[in-house]
Amino acid sequence: MTATDPSSPRTSPRPVDGEGKISLTLRVNGSAERVRARPNHTLLEVLRNELHLTGPREGCGVGMCGACTVLVDGRPVSSCLLPAALAEDHELTTIEGLEGPNGELHPIQEAYVEHTGFQCSYCTPGFILATKALLEECPDVTRDEAKAYLAGNLCRCGSYVKILDSVMDARDRVRG
């Protein structure tokens, strides 16, 4: 996600205002959002504190638990590690972006609810977004493949069996 062209605006220093912030335009859940953030702010900080999207959560703060997972151009990314400025020019999806036009749940969310693929639900948004990416990459995923793919997402409550049941049902729902 870094620019390779040295003349790219993302590699040039950005103007910093009197509060030490830079201006960013992020494409989040299909909408362009203008925000101001410090150059060292992570995407997680900007999503939660500037855009008030509380689905991505900080669990470990070092990219090891998956609670902060968002999709960047359809791929799961730990938003606690990604500098917000590097997210410009990319399509960002948070759990809030899965909601249907009339507020209905996405089929993956329906599967998680039906199979109670959560307990405390702190990790659930990250698991659901990782599941979405998985099913787009591999629509015919097996249970073992899903288990390996989701290994970077941790559930402190230990709901892994129900999470995998949810993923397998979501696979069937999304496939049609």
In a nutshell, what does this entry contain?
By secondary structure, this protein is an alpha+beta fold. The protein contains five helices and five strands; from the N terminus they run ββαβββαααα. The protein has helices at 43-50, 107-114, 124-137, 143-149, 160-175; strands at 22-28, 31-37, 69-72, 75-78, 91-93.
Layout of helices and strands:
Blueprint: E1 22-28, E2 31-37, H1 43-50, E3 69-72, E4 75-78, E5 91-93, H2 107-114, H3 124-137, H4 143-149, H5 160-175
Helix pairs in contact: 2-5
Report on this structure.
With 176 residues, this protein is of the alpha+beta class. It has two domains: 22-98, Ubiquitin-like (UB roll) (Roll); 107-175, Orthogonal Bundle (DNA polymerase, domain 1). The chain has five helices and five strands. The protein has helices at 43-50, 107-114, 124-137, 143-149, 160-175; strands at 22-28, 31-37, 69-72, 75-78, 91-93. It has a five-stranded mixed sheet with strand order 2-1-5-3-4, with helices on both faces. α2 packs antiparallel against α5. It starts with 21 loop residues before the first strand and ends with a helix. Mean pLDDT is 93; it is low at 1-8.
